[in-house]
Design a protein that fits this description.
The chain is α/β, with parallel strands linked by helices and 345 residues long. Helix content is 46%, strand content 15%. It contains eleven helices and eight strands. The strands form two sheets. It has a four-stranded parallel sheet, with helices on both faces. Strands 6-5-7-8 form a four-stranded parallel sheet, with helices on both faces. α3 packs across α11. The protein is globular, with a radius of gyration of 22 Å.
Amino acid sequence: MTVIVPIHGTETVADQAPERVGVLLVNLGTPDSADTKGVRDYLREFLSDPRVIENQGVVWKLALNGLILRTRPARKARDYQKIWNNDANESPLKTITRGQSRKLAATLTGREHIVVDWAMRYGNPSMRSRIDALVEQGCRRLLVVPLYPQYSAATSATVCDQAFRVLSEMRAQPTLRVTPPYYRDDAYIDALANSITSHLATLPFEPERIVASFHGMPQAYINKGDPYQSHCIATVDALRQRMGLDDNRLLLTFQSRFGFDQWLQPYTDKTIEQLGKDGVRRLAVVMPGFAADCLETLEEIAQENAEIFVKNGGEQFTAVPCLNDSDGGISVIRQVVLRELEGWL
């Protein structure tokens, strides 16, 4: 005898709601407060990452705990205080990254199954807390978006490391994807060119040179195979072509070196100093490697390097804002996200 068992509560494929997908924007990090303790806590986490300082041996640990964390936090805290968002009591990087998350979500209307969130690799909100939150909201698929146009092991790879570390402790892991670097995507180059052109159009002067300054890296890391330098070169080459500028008008440099090892050259501060001495009087600096303005752009470039330029004969200086949460910046992130979500939507 055949027994027919009714199945209740089933839905056709067409009736099923799409599986929830989490999109996590991740930037480098920031102290929780612009004081010595906040900066010390942040630097301890940052500089203890073997992706950032590869040799974490006894000598480095003695230097970190015996010297760097005793002297550097107070000085860097003063730098953070110069650019701190006092209204929100947070760094501009945190304010902007939150804005990027909210504006990206607003462009994805009609896709309510996509949940957009944001995190910092170092500091708060932590990647662990936000991945947990996305999973708790029912996200069974996760797209991690390192907000670095150019790949490096010290930035993009450590985001992946942390994502894998968090997932390694989960019994039921979400399916994971990570967006690739977008250092020469047409949308990114167009957004940079439009941003530079729009900013320069607001100035009472025309710069004689434009310096494209990227965060530095020890040369030894490149020698070991890190592609970061080649990505920076490709970005600037594409930007030169897009804007019709040669390598004399748009220069490539590297900033923010640390310690005594040789870092990628030419150095931004030395280049800007020499430009002033050589008679350049009007200068613009753009920072294509930063998706959001932060200490390195707002204080190091817009203040410290502006002073270096004027001290050495320069007269007019401007720092072009990063893409941040501008329409152009969000358009770039949206395109990268939707491309990598193909097959999940």
